[in-house]
Write a structure and sequence with these properties.
The protein is of the alpha+beta class. It is 40% helix and 27% strand. The two termini are 71 Å apart.
C-alpha cells in the first residue's frame, strides 16, 4: 500500500507541471488574442447612425432615395404633402411685396402738407384764422403715423411670409449627414408621425473601430496613437487609424477598457459591421 501511494505521488508530480504549462500557455494565448484585437474585441462600426424622423406629421408624398443610395448633408430625402403650406406661402409673399398702402399714405400726407403751406400764407395775410392751420398741421402728423403703421404692417407681412416658408421647409425631410441609406422604412402614401422613423442613414467616412484592451495596457495608448487595422476576410487589407477616444472608466468584471479609433474611408471600400484585428504602432511613432 505504501508503495502504491508513493507511486501516485510521483505520477502527480510529473503531471502537475504539464497542467501548469497548459494553463500558462492558454493564458498567454488569451492575452495575445486580446492585444491583437481578435474576434469579439475589435469591431468596425459606422461613425454616425441616424434614425431619420420628421418634426411634423403628415402623409408622405415622395421618398426620393432608397436603400444603398449615397446622400449628402442637407439633401431632401423625403417630402410630406404640403399643398396647403405652398398656397399659404404664396399668399403671404404677395402681401409682403405689396407696398401700396405705404404709397397711398405718403400721397395723402404730401397733399396735406401743400394745403397747410397755402393755409399758412392766408393766415399771414389775415384771410384765414389760426385754427384752420392747426387742423392741417395735425393731419400732417396723423399722416406720419399712418405711414409708420403701414410700414410696420409690411414688416409683419414679411415676417409672416418667413414663418410660412419655414413651415413649408418642415415638410421637407433632409439628411443631417453625408452617408448611405441602409434602410427605408416608409414609402409614399404612408402617414408619418412625429416619432416615426422614415429611414436609417449611416456615415461611413470615417469609420469607428471599437477595440477592447486588457487593463495592463492602460496608459500605453493615448489619444492620437496610431494603429494598423486589419478587417476580416474577405475584405482584408491594412489601414491606418488613430485613437480618438479612450474610456476613462475600466470594466471591473473583465479588467478591460475600450478604445475608439477613427478609420478614414473616403471611397467607402471598407464596410461597417465586420470584425477586425489591430496592430499598435510603437509609442515613439504615435502621432498626437
Amino acid at each position: 500500500m505504501r508503495r502504491f501511494i508513493l507511486s501516485l505521488v510521483a505520477q502527480s508530480l510529473v503531471v502537475l507541471p504539464l497542467v501548469v504549462l497548459l494553463i500558462s500557455a492558454s493564458a498567454r494565448a488569451q492575452t495575445d488574442a486580446s492585444d491583437s484585437g481578435a474576434s469579439g474585441t475589435c469591431i468596425i462600426k459606422p461613425h454616425v447612425l441616424v434614425q431619420l424622423n420628421s418634426a411634423v406629421g403628415g402623409v408622405l408624398s415622395a421618398t426620393l432615395v432608397d436603400r444603398g443610395d449615397v446622400v449628402r448633408q442637407g439633401q431632401v430625402v423625403a417630402q410630406i404633402e404640403s399643398s396647403v403650406e405652398q398656397a399659404t406661402l404664396a399668399l403671404d409673399q404677395l402681401r409682403a411685396a405689396n407696398d401700396g398702402a405705404i404709397k397711398v399714405e405718403q400721397v395723402d400726407r404730401e397733399l396735406t402738407v401743400r394745403e397747410a403751406a397755402r393755409k399758412q400764407s392766408l393766415v399771414a395775410k389775415g384771410i384765414e384764422n389760426q385754427n384752420a392751420l392747426d387742423e392741417l398741421e395735425t393731419k400732417v402728423q396723423e399722416g406720419d403715423l399712418r405711414i409708420q403703421q403701414a410700414r410696420m404692417d409690411k414688416q409683419i407681412a414679411s415676417l409672416t411670409a418667413e414663418r410660412s416658408d419655414r413651415a413649408l421647409a418642415l415638410k421637407q425631410i433632409r439628411s443631417p449627414i453625408d452617408g448611405v441609406v441602409i434602410e427605408r422604412k416608409l414609402s409614399a402614401g404612408e402617414y408619418i408621425y412625429e416619432q416615426t422613423s422614415v429611414m436609417t442613414i449611416a456615415q461611413l467616412d470615417p469609420l469607428n473601430v471599437e477595440v477592447v484592451l486588457p487593463l495592463r495596457r492602460y496608459g500605453e495608448i493615448s489619444v492620437g496613437s496610431t494603429a494598423t487595422v486589419h478587417p476580416e476576410a474577405p475584405v482584408g487589407g491594412a489601414y491606418l487609424a488613430k485613437a480618438d477616444v479612450i474610456d476613462p472608466v475600466i470594466d471591473a468584471a473583465s479588467e478591460t477598457f475600450g478604445v475608439r479609433l477613427l478609420l478614414p474611408n473616403p471611397h467607402r471600400v471598407i464596410p461597417a459591421g465586420i470584425r477586425c484585428s489591430v496592430d499598435w504602432q510603437p509609442t515613439a511613432q504615435a502621432t498626437r
